[in-house]
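Box 3.1 A note on notation
Throughout this textbook, protein chains are presented in two layers. The first layer is the amino acid sequence; the second is a token string describing backbone geometry. Keep the layers aligned when reading.
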Amino acid sequence: MTVQQKEKDAREKIKDLREWFDTAGLPAGPVKLCPGVTVVDVKRFVETSLSRLESMELRSKTMQMAYVHLTDFKNVLLSNG
């Protein structure tokens, strides 16, 4: 797989996350992401995380961690729903 294809795939995953969060019913209250980490302002967390992902260099470690945190958050919401 070429670098261009990897970047295209990563952008598609981010787009899919954006679409999921845009249509998902987000909880109003705090959500415990993992022991010691609670998301208090869910809407702000999602928006800032997606904005950061969309503006980052795709291969950066920061981008990879932001993606992991956001997908972990999505999985917590799915498991609680």
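The chain has one domain: 3-80. The helical segments are 3-23, 42-55, 61-80.
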